[in-house]
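Slide 14.
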Amino acid sequence: MKMFNLINIGERAGSGVPDVFKTWEEQGWEEPMIEERYGDAARTSLILSFNEKQAKKTSGIKQTRKTLKNKENILEYLQKNGDSKTGDIAEFLKLSESRTRAILKELVIEEKIIANGGNKNKIYFLRNTDIL
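Slide 15: predicted structure.
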């Protein structure tokens, strides 16, 4: 408590803990962890990490590195294989069709691919071939 009090982000009552969580969120660091131990050596620890969160914001859509890699793989797949259905792309990515559909929808919103047809017969193709 004394350390946090010295840097003006805490008070003796523990009311500074929400300020710590807010600061970490604003900086984009991993959320602090509170660890409690009971028994003879009872203590409460606040574990602070300066590591950035895994997810990052890209053009207003929260995306993980894995999602970004899947998008790259989809674009490469469509370039090599041409017009494709969700099931074929999902099988290539080794993802569920619902997750693949969500990623494809993001690519349509980003105007990198075009979707044509109804839900069951929808096919996807590249908007243009020089986006890679």
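Speaker note: Helices lie at 2-6, 17-27, 65-81, 86-93, 97-109.
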